[in-house]
Amino acid sequence: MAVAFNIETLDFSDISAEDFAAWTALRDANPALESPYHHPDYHDCVNRHQGGGRVTLARQDGALVALLPWQGGTFARPSGAPLSDYQTIIAAPETDITIENLLAEQAVGAFHYSAMPSPDGDETCRMEIGLPEDWRGARDGSYRRHLKSTRRRIRNTEEDIGPRRIVTQSRDVDAYQALMGWKRDKFDETGKFDVLANDGTSGILKDLWERGPNAPLRADLHVLYFGNRIAACDLGLTDGRVFHSWIVGYDPDFLTYAPGIQLLEAMIDAAPDLGYGVIDLGPGTDGYKRQYATHSRRISSGVATLPTAAGAMAAGYDRMELALREKTGDALGKLRRRYSQISACEPRLSKRSAAIVSALGNHIRRDPA
Fold first, then answer.
1. Quick one: fold of 130-276?
2. Burial of 334 (0-12, 13-18, 19+ CB in 10 A)
3. Helix H segments across 94-251?
């Protein structure tokens, strides 16, 4: 027998203190929700800088059992997308409720997501740290060879450039600006859409960083210096226990010294003092990440459609994408995900259209076949 839910949708600013407390309780009671992206303060920050935040709440016998923070209109998206590396329904364990259930009474045709839980999705890289020496001792031979190479690079750095130092929870404005500059250069180099160019997105990051190291939900900035130069930075969202590596960059002049890896190893050493039990490197386990992952969660992108005209259009595109995948690879999927990124960051139609044209041009130049 299906369980009935009492469902309502509120503007984010109308959520009561009691519902915020219940949100926190749901998150704390469900191990699958152990991520700062599911913290109510994160979505409150998103709403204050981007606006348009809504929360759909499901109750049973008056008690809150599930909720979905979201943005958008006819084509909706998770709150904070595309910045949010994890997106989900906040619910008690074993609660059987879907996006379609929650949004059935809304004027929503489709809900596009990029990082929802999926048993068949892509892996993420999650590091359960504990004591650094125990964590390293449990790694396999591949990691030990990797660590040996990293230590050789550390010696080369100190011989060629000078002493290294790490500053955890840095308040250095120059380091913050250097990181943003490196990321924007990388977006330009790769032709990807620059999500940091949007005032709302950049405002979220700066707000969370400026809260400082004592805030319950914040962005911590860790900085590695080679001599007097800023070599690498990692800005991560954290609730105190879980540090989610979010925006990472390094000085390209130091590429051969692997400054990003050196910084990560220093952060592992500093984790107990910082209170981190988990360092989450986010989506993907390729490249260097395969040396570090101890646990993984699986996430996928996609769309949930509702029985409306807009939903039928979105479902039709999804079917076309699947039907043409053998011929086009993931080209249509990439286009859909790129549009979702752009529409989330750029509310103005003219700017959105220009960004889409630019994205298409970059795709054609990089993959003319």
1. Aminopeptidase (3.40.630)
2. middle
3. 99-103, 132-137, 141-160, 173-190, 199-210
**What predicted TM-score, i.e. pTM, was given to this entire model?**
0.87
Residue with tokens 């906040």: 90
362 vs 51: CA distance, rounded Å = 30
209 in Cβ contact with 221 (< 8 Å): yes
Residue 236 near residue 246, CB atoms below 8 Å: yes
User: For 6-118+300-323, which CATH class?
Assistant: alpha beta
Distance between CA atoms of residues 294 and 27, nearest Å = 22
Helix axis angle for 331-345 and 309-323, nearest 10°, is 140
Q: Which residue is it, tokens 């103005």?
A: 348
Cα 170 from Cα 212, distance rounded (Å): 9
The whole-angstrom separation of Cα 45 and Cα 67 is: 17
pLDDT digits (tens, 9 = 90+) for 82-128: 899 999 999 999 899 999 999 999 989 999 999 999 999 999 999 99
* Nearest residue to 280 via CA among 301, 294, 266, 291: 294
User: CA 172, CA 236: separation in Å to the nearest integer?
Assistant: 15
Q: Do domains 6-118+300-323 and 130-276 have the same CATH topology?
A: yes
